[in-house]
Write a structure and sequence with these properties.
This protein is α+β, with helices and mostly antiparallel strands. It contains 3 helices and 4 strands; from the N terminus they run E-H-E-E-H-E-H. It binds iron/sulfur cluster (2 copies). The site of one iron/sulfur cluster has 13 residues, from loops.
Length: about 100
């Protein structure tokens, strides 16, 4: 099992989730975060932290965002780790 960042994080990147992750498994590109499934310990701490409900346990990913499970696994390992909360993108919706 792992946890998956889905579509609502796109163009948003509030990074509340990063601040609570005990194992530093969030990675970022310009627009969105990804969780590395090989590092995630399934603690679930990040789920309630995300103000736009972008994170799901892989067993709970909505059907319309199913492809994000593979996308997170593919993208995360090659992108830089993000370990500290920072300002969201200007395009982020209000909390
Ligand atoms: S808190 Fe949610 S929207 Fe913000 S970076 Fe994390 S997953 Fe993305
Ligand atoms: S479930 Fe836990 S280990 Fe996995 S990304 Fe969220 S906070 Fe990190």
């Amino acid at each position: 099992m792992t946890h998956v960042v889905c579509e609502p994080c796109n163009n948003c990147k509030y990074t509340d989730c990063v601040a609570v992750c005990p194992v530093e498994c969030f990675h970022e590109d310009e627009f969105i975060l990804y969780i590395d499934p090989d590092e995630c310990i399934d603690c679930g701490l990040c789920i309630p932290e995300c103000p736009v409900e972008a994170i799901f346990a892989d067993s709970d990913v909505p059907e319309k965002w199913e492809h994000y499970t593979e996308l997170n696994a593919e993208k995360a390992p090659d992108l830089p780790v993000i370990t500290e909360q920072k300002d969201p993108l200007p395009t982020a919706p209000p909390k």
